[in-house]
Every structure is written in structure tokens, then in C-alpha cells.
Amino acid sequence: MRVLVVENEATTAQLLVGHVQRLRDFAVTEQASTGADALRRLAPGHVDLVLLGVHLPDMSWLDLLRTLRGAGCTVGVVAVTATHDLSVIRTALAFGVVHYLLKPFTFTSVREQLEKYEAYRSLRNVGELVLVQQEVDQLLGVLRDADENRLPKGISRESLQAVTAALKRCSGLGGVSAAEVARALGISRVTTRRYLEFLVDKGAAHRRARYRGPGRPELEYVWLSPDA
């Protein structure tokens, strides 16, 4: 599968290229460091998948996606980003981003995302005119994490990743309350607490009382498990 790496940061670009080239069925055939260069390289239609960094010097990555889709280009796109802004994620998904590769990434995480897209693409290219429900579910499901369907009702993977990332960042400072995470992410405190309690139940986070003067103590949360 032919891959275009679009990344302005040289070190990140080198890592991505190195990881992709280790995979048997993938090859980096094009590289670009600007949005304009990426659009030029995509025009001939010789690329199957784009690994798209979100920091481009000449245009926003969302504008690049809008331009691509507006021109009728349906190439698969995996966004390479450290952002956990849910509004940005939703917008990107609306423009056909098939998955997010979150920084810092590893060879394993790169391989997983590319293999998911390869499985999706192979199903999409079967060419059958009529699909039964099971086949439709399979086509959509290969782009999701294997355990996504096991998340309880009211817990979405996007929001869970955002809350987890915020908790990890703040835990180095000694812990964080639901209200503090809610303010950082721009979501409600009730919703944030639901996700934090879910992480506690999984054993990925610890809940404890925070005493700051007289009155009722506030609950704070600390990240425990790097693998959860």
C-alpha cells in the first residue's frame, strides 16, 4: 500500500517513515512538509493512505481535508496528533479521517492503525453490490479498537481518551479533581466524573480525598496504570 507522509516536523516524519517501511505491505512513496505540497502529490491519485500531521506551515490540516474532499479525493487519512480536543476530532471525522495516531506513537501503534485501514480497504474493494447487515458491521468495525464495543453505555472512546490524557498530564503534579479536568476539556463536571470513576473501576486511576482547609474534602484522581 502506497503511503504519503505529511509532516512538518523532521524528527516525527523520520520516525513515521521508518515505522512504515518496516511493514511488509506498506511503502512510503511520497513525503510532504506543507499542505500545498501534499495536495500536489495527491493530485495524480497514486497514494492509498495519508499519514497527516496536524501542524502545517501554510494551512490548517482541517482546511487541507476540506480541499481534498471538495475535490472528490477519497484517499484514507490517519491524523497524527497530540490533540484531544473533541470538537476538532469530530470535525476531522466528518471529513473522512479514518483514525487517530496519538503522539507519542510507537512502531506497534503505527502498525495497528495501518493494518486496520488495510483490512477496511480490502473489504471495501470486494465489489459486491449488496451487503448483508453482518458484512456492513464488519466493514465499519475494522476501523475501531477491538474492545470498543465492550465499553459501557455512556462511555465513548474519544471522550475516554481525552479524560485519560488530561489525567496523565496532571497526575505528575499530585492529582486532579473532576472540576479541574472538566475545565481543561470544556465538558461538564458530571460527565468528567463518570469517566474518572470508570478509570478507577478499571484500576487505571486512584481516588483520594483532597483536604484544603475546613469543610468537606474534595475528591481528586491520580493516574496509576500506563497500560490501561
Task: Label the structural class.
Answer: alpha/beta
- CATH level 3 topology of the largest domain: Rossmann fold
**How much helix is in the residues?**
40-55%
Q: What's the helix count? A: 9
Q: In one word, what is the shape?
A: elongated
Uncertain residue ranges: none
Order of strands across the biggest sheet?
2-1-3-4-5
Our Rg estimate from Cα atoms comes to: 20 Å
- The CATH class label of the largest domain is Alpha Beta
- CATH homologous superfamily classification of the largest domain: Response regulator
Number of strands: 8
The percentage of residues in β strands lies in: 15-25%
Which architecture of the largest domain would the CATH scheme give at its second level? 3-Layer(aba) Sandwich
* Tally of individual domains: 2
Mean pLDDT: 82
Give the distance, in angstroms, between the N- and C-terminal Cα atoms. Answer: 31 Å
Helix-strand sequence? EHEHEHEHEHHHEHHEE
Query: The biggest beta sheet, please?
Result: 5 strands, parallel
Pfam families: Response_reg
Protein name: Transcriptional regulatory protein
GO molecular function, one term: phosphorelay response regulator activity
Subcellular location: Cytoplasm
Summarize the structure.
This protein is α/β, with parallel strands linked by helices and 228 residues long.
Tell me about this structure:
45% of the residues lie in helices and 18% in strands. The chain is an alpha/beta fold and 228 residues long. It folds into two domains: 2-144, 3-Layer(aba) Sandwich (Rossmann fold); 157-223, Orthogonal Bundle (Arc Repressor Mutant, subunit A), CATH 1.10.10. Strands 2-1-3-4-5 form a five-stranded parallel β-sheet, sandwiched between helices. A hairpin with a 7-residue loop joins β7 (205-210) and β8 (218-223). The longest helix has 18 residues, at 107-124. The protein is elongated.
